[in-house]
Specification:
This is Phospholipid phosphatase 4 isoform X5. The chain has 96 residues and is an all-alpha fold. The protein is built from 2 helices and no strands. The two termini are 36 Å apart.
Length: 96
Amino acid sequence: MRELAIEIGVRALLFGVFVFTEFLDPFQRVIQPEEIWLYKNPLVQSDNIPTRLMFLPFLAWASRRSTWLASCTASPRVGGGRAGGSVPPSCPCTAP
């Protein structure tokens, strides 16, 4: 019960800090003349980002996982189903 009270207190404190900072005046950044060159990057005409390479690991993982889950659910079980049945050793998705 004490942990719950601490959790509620911390969350209330964080919410109070959020509400306080939400109504403050916005921060105005002043860029100094000696750092203005950092913001003068030239525009690139060909802005091509290869997204296929970005999603290949996820697609490979999802494909392997769906194949693995299909093999687990389609494997024969002794005893008729999950409850009380034995699971083949090639399927680590459920405990025997």
